Backbone:
């Protein structure tokens, strides 16, 4: 079962919360933000990030893909799973690293150099955070992220500076509505 996709599992409160995602935004030190890339900056950042996964304790569990190599169906599947957004550019410098079980994805050169996301079934923010943090820690063994003692991690958006973390849940609203009606909340 270790190779099963995360979304085939059941998690806490999964009758209402379908999944929990934690996302870390990170940018590499000594590179401009993606909107200010020149020449081969995008390819160099992508190469450094892709290479960092080869230094992980379990490198064979990750697959790197260029977004330009995705067909429309592959792109749609990754959008539905929350790995990509429709607005993610299709360019030679943009890529994705995905763990084979789908619990981790790392989007490279979208709004920031790196967007590490972890996905778990149900309402389990702690587990999602731990997965994301483990990837962040391993990446920092081979790449240096831009950070400040005063402001934390530096990102292309002021909303993401500091921890760079965003937590979200995918909720099944009809179930929520039905369960509230049965409790007399309406």
Residues:
């Amino acid at each position: 079962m270790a190779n099963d996709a995360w979304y085939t599992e059941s998690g806490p409160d999964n009758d209402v919360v379908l999944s929990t995602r934690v996302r870390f935004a990170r940018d590499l030190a000594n590179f401009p933000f993606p909107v200010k890339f020149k020449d081969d900056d995008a390819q160099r950042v992508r190469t450094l990030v892709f290479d960092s996964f080869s230094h992980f304790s379990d490198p064979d569990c990750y697959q790197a893909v260029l977004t330009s190599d995705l067909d429309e169906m592959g792109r749609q599947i990754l959008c539905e799973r929350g790995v990509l957004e429709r607005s993610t550019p299709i360019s030679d410098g943009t890529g994705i690293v995905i763990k084979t079980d789908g619990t981790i994805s790392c989007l490279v050169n979208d709004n920031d150099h790196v967007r590490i996301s972890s996905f778990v079934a149900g309402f389990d923010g702690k587990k999602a955070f731990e997965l994301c943090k483990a990837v962040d820690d391993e990446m920092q063994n081979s790449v240096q992220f831009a950070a400040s003692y005063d402001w934390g991690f530096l990102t292309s958006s002021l909303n993401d500076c500091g921890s760079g973390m965003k937590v979200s849940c995918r909720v099944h609203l009809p179930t929520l509505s039905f369960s509230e009606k049965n409790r007399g909340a309406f």
User: Anything to note?
Assistant: The chain has one domain: 6-182. The CA atoms of residues 12 and 123 lie 5 Å apart. The chain has a mean pLDDT of 85.
